[in-house]
Amino acid sequence: MVSFDNESEKNASACQLSLQEKNKGILNGLLDNLAETKGVWREQPLTAFAALGESGNPKELMVVGRAVNSWTNKWHADDIKDPDVRSRIVDEAFAATEWHDGHPMRWVTARWGLRDRYSTKKSSFWRVVRAVVNGLEIADVTDLAWPSSICWSNLYKVSPHAGGNPSRRLAAAQLHSCIDMLEGEISEWQPRRILFLTGLNWARPFVRSFGWDLKLHNDIGEIEAKGIASAGAQIVIAPHPQGRREVRLTKSIVEAFLQKGQ
After folding, report:
1. Domains in the chain and their CATH numbers?
2. What is the pTM assigned to this prediction?
């Protein structure tokens, strides 16, 4: 854990506020664009997401997924033609970043093993993330606070509330805004490692926009690419864990991060 003096903590808080306000503006513009974009997804209830992570210290690991399911209150594209509704949706999305008294990632352990609601233990995504944290010795995963050692985002900030990934049109309508938001999140948290559990096809437009130097790596088990981000972070792109052999996938991810060079 990195310690900070009072002045550093103040500066970190100011930076976090600046990023949050910037991303709120981007998300509001994204919603405004969706309100005017045609697509069959307009009939679906949608949900919005803002990345989670504690401010004040660089992260050992940032995990990026594709999109969330049933994250915040559901709404329809026609609803967001009203500026007040858009503002409320944005506020709800970012309110989640203050969960658990400023330790928002602890929602993962708070829902680990729940029987009557969504259980993160039943999610292949979170099981693999936990195993990677353990394999890289980032935190003691038997400690309920282990998720606070990482930050978490998704490629796409708006997705179907009922589940499933954004359609091609819904993804295209928000792509540029989502690229801007993810770029700001990476700059804020300065992770040493970034793991995309998305598959290369989903991550490709983001990677190309960032100009990262990645190479395909078919020789490292199940991962699809690895490399170095412009700020020096190690990048590993792996498929979504659903339906995969999780032990093998985790081993491939950990080995890829621990290998020197690209």
Report:
1. 6-258 (3.40.470.10)
2. 0.90
